[in-house]
Automatic annotation (TrEMBL):
InterPro entries: AAA+_ATPase (IPR003593), ABC_transporter-like_ATP-bd (IPR003439), ABC_transporter-like_CS (IPR017871), P-loop_NTPase (IPR027417)
Molecular function terms from GO: ATP binding; ATP hydrolysis activity
Coiled coil region boundaries: none
Keywords recorded for this protein, A-Z: ATP-binding, Nucleotide-binding, Transport
Domain ABC transporter: 7-243
PANTHER family: INTERMEMBRANE PHOSPHOLIPID TRANSPORT SYSTEM ATP-BINDING PROTEIN MLAF, PROTEIN TRIGALACTOSYLDIACYLGLYCEROL 3, CHLOROPLASTIC
CDD domains per the UniProt record, alphabetical: ABC_Org_Solvent_Resistant (cd03261)
Pfam families documented for this protein: ABC_tran
Domain of life: Bacteria
Record protein name field: Phospholipid/cholesterol/gamma-HCH transport system ATP-binding protein
Length: 262
């Protein structure tokens, strides 16, 4: 018998303007697993992540997190939920005017921690976990793309989260740096016993880190299974995605931001 899911997404619907982004998306995520979420560019994966931290409310549907439907929560009720979730944004979202140390310490100070020794020890531990000892006084502008991601990750785990959300953690990184980020995702899963949800287009990364994979297609869960099941299927939609093939529809898909004024 399956254990209770840590997060249960039930029949989520969302629209932006007239565009239906999620059309009854459902997904169970279990404690301690790394779930990789695949899907076409512009398909709604980042929008879905924003629902998980309460930055967007669905039109209908539920997100049950540790037994409670968080879609009904107000900002105050969401605060303790957000503390349990570390988010690695696509661009890292570091504060460029702050040192690495201050970036990583930021969530602690935000939550009212004033004891400098506690802050120093936690920042030290978090930077150690992402192999960034000795870089704490650098400014983000002086870091490589991979290092920026690792700083953002240190900030996301400064108070050990129950869940880490990764939005395209290897995008824009070379294969070697991507590999180090993949290893880090795996290592954190083990060290922190954390549940991870990773949005990516990177199939190498997916094969490296996934315990389970879901494919979001046309607003719905098209596939949910193990890597073995993903690679074993002959379903053409999944195969095109896994093998990186475009379809005629993709060639003629409307551009994201058509310049209608011209
Ligand atoms: N704030 C917003 N305002 C208007 N449209 C938005 C907004 N955020 C997302 N969208 C639209 O919602 C759709 C889904 O976007 P989303 O970023 O979730 O896709 P994605 O699957 O994460 O894509 P990618 O893999 O390219 O990052 C897109 O068509 C996007 O243009």
């Amino acid at each position: 018998m399956n254990p209770e899911p840590l997060i249960s997404v039930r029949d989520l619907h969302q629209k932006i303007g007239r565009q239906e982004i999620l059309r009854g998306f459902s997904l169970d995520i279990f404690k301690g697993e790394t779930l990789v979420l695949l899907g076409k560019s512009g398909g709604g994966k980042s929008v879905f992540l924003r629902h998980l931290i309460g930055l967007m409310k669905p039109i209908s549907g539920q997100i049950v997190f540790e037994g409670d439907d968080i879609t009904k929560y107000n900002e105050r009720e969401l605060e303790p939920v957000r503390r349990k979730i570390g988010m690695l944004f696509q661009d890292g979202a570091l504060f460029d005017s702050m040192t690495v140390y201050e970036n990583v310490a930021f969530p602690l100070r935000e939550r009212g921690e004033r004891n400098e020794k506690v802050i120093r020890d936690k920042v030290h531990d978090a930077l150690g976990m992402v192999n960034l000892h000795g870089h704490d006084q650098k400014m983000p502008v002086n870091l490589s793309g991979g290092m920026r991601k690792r700083v953002a990750l240190a900030r996301a785990i400064i108070s050990p989260p129950h869940v880490i959300l990764y939005d395209e953690p290897t995008a824009g990184l070379d294969p070697i740096v991507s590999d180090s980020i993949n290893r880090l995702i795996r290592r954190l899963q083990k060290q922190l016993a954390v549940t991870s949800i990773v949005v990516t287009h990177d199939m190498i990364s997916c094969d490296h880190i996934a315990d389970r994979v879901a494919l979001l297609n046309e607003g719905k869960r098209y596939f949910h299974g193990t890597l073995q099941e993903l690679h074993g299927t002959q379903d053409p939609v999944i195969r095109n995605f896994v093998d990186g093939k475009s379809t005629d529809d993709d060639d003629f898909a409307p551009l994201d931001s058509p310049n209608e004024d011209n």
